[in-house]
Amino acid sequence: MKMTFRWYGLNDCISLQTIKQIPGMTGVVTAVYDTPVGSVWSRETIATLKAECDKNSLEMEVIESVPVHEDIKLGRGNRDEYIENYCENIRRLAEVGVKCICYNFMPVFDWLRTNLHTVAADGSNSLSYNHEEILALDPKKLSLPGWDESYTSDELNALLESYKDISREQLFDNLVYFLNKIIPVCEEVGINMAIHPDDPPWDVFGLPRIICSEADYEKLFAAVPSNCNGITFCTGSLGAGRNNDLIKMAYEYSKRGKIHFAHIRNIAYSGECDFREVAHLTEAGSLDIYGITKALCDGGFTGYVRPDHGRNIWGEDAKPGYGLFDRALGACYLNGLFEAIEKGANK
Q1: pLDDT above 70 coverage of the chain, percent
Q2: What topology is assigned to 2-346 in CATH?
Q3: 148 falls in which pLDDT band (50, 70, 90)?
Q4: CA–CA dist 237, 231 (Å, integer)
């Protein structure tokens, strides 16, 4: 297992010098953020990120993410051109030692929350989701926390209209088409693709969600059986779906070598589809983080881990979910769990 930390590049308010001071941190998870979706990343920009990581003795083996253009998801327009650009990005990332790419195939929104600063009893604040609030929104007049600057109103409505007649089956077929084009490149250069589950794991605004459950994973693995076709095991996203048995999935998919990357965080249920994000440790929320970690270890997991969304604590006013303090605490907690479990197993 390698412990990593999300780093938003040179403009991140959290420096690499700070990140490397977190005990047990081996590397960062980053990306190129100034290039339009679907375009080829410049070698110079990739090399700059790599050089900064090397200078701070942190590995850059995981990229999160190389975004998938909506034309690829919709199976329209210039998808083959965008897929070829994606393949070129894979090749260029492999040149600097990248081993894993986390990506998603969620239409339009790659995550949804209704509040970015839900205040807890201890005074911390974190992201939360309320399903009734989502249902009450007019899809034509959306105003969502964290997304208001992502699209203009016209752009968002045009995208939603484009997905109006796209079924789950069509979206899945477009994912398979995409993977069948890029996986041979991954196999050639030694990069694993790790698809992130849908967040939350159910349809929203009529947009189909296709990576939500064990059944979805089995369908994906059967369609594209390559070892390079794996998953990002995100406990918070999958955990929002009450029917997902995270301990079983963690064990089975790590045993089969399908978990290339793990996002580990905890959530607290507040309704059938409602939740808020909490501290990482098991007792803070509704997920058995110890049980999940043990299942990963028992299954032989050797991939990358990062503490996922943290709270804003101790007066920190950081990017929601991505402050320093709570994620650093989460990394230390997870490192402690992995060490205790692995040493216990060795005895």
Answers
A1: 97
A2: TIM Barrel (3.20.20)
A3: low
A4: 13
